[in-house]
Write a structure and sequence with these properties.
With about 150 residues, the chain is α+β, with helices and mostly antiparallel strands. The protein contains five helices and four strands; from the N terminus they run H-E-E-H-H-H-E-E-H. The chain has a four-stranded antiparallel beta sheet with strand order 2-1-4-3.
Length: about 150
């Protein structure tokens, strides 16, 4: 379970880092298992559909058990398979970088964060920064643990 205080730390760290890097306005969602929203913030000046985009990235990470950037690559590699998943998820999956799984110190899955507003590479970098700022782990941080972690397709 992700605590509200952890979700807020993740989001606030992401927004602070985005300002340091002079990013475009950022929106961030933190979700628990089942893509249940724990917290969301949208910076002033963010575009209209930013909640849906952030949520779609987090949903993609949870649905396929990997970062949403790997989901994007999977879409390129296996379009028929991914088309089915998009339809099965009622188009909740957004296959664009910026969605990362959140893990505890032992590598157990807690949820995901979705970041949108800048480039997909920057969004994903910000997501990892926020997770680590809350004392939690990304897939890359847990690669050597017993849990099955997907760092590539």
């Amino acid at each position: 379970m992700i605590l509200l205080s952890q979700a807020e730390t993740i989001i606030d760290a992401i927004l602070s880092r985005a300002r340091e890097l002079d990013c475009r306005p950022i929106s961030v969602v933190v979700v628990e298992h089942g893509a249940v929203v724990k917290a969301f913030k949208k910076e002033d000046g963010s575009a209209m559909m930013r909640f849906e985009m952030a949520m779609g990235k987090a949903h993609a990470a949870l649905a396929l058990g990997r970062s949403s950037s790997l989901v994007r690559l999977r879409t390129e590699q296996r379009p028929l398979f991914m088309d089915f998943l998009f339809k099965a998820s009622q188009d909740r999956i957004f296959a664009e970088g910026g969605g990362i799984l959140i893990r505890d110190a032992d590598g157990a899955l807690l949820g995901a964060v979705g970041v949108t507003g800048d480039t997909q590479e920057r969004d994903e970098e910000l997501a990892a920064h926020g997770i680590r700022a809350a004392g939690l782990k990304t897939d890359e941080d847990c690669a050597g643990l017993a849990h099955h972690i997907r760092l590539k397709n």
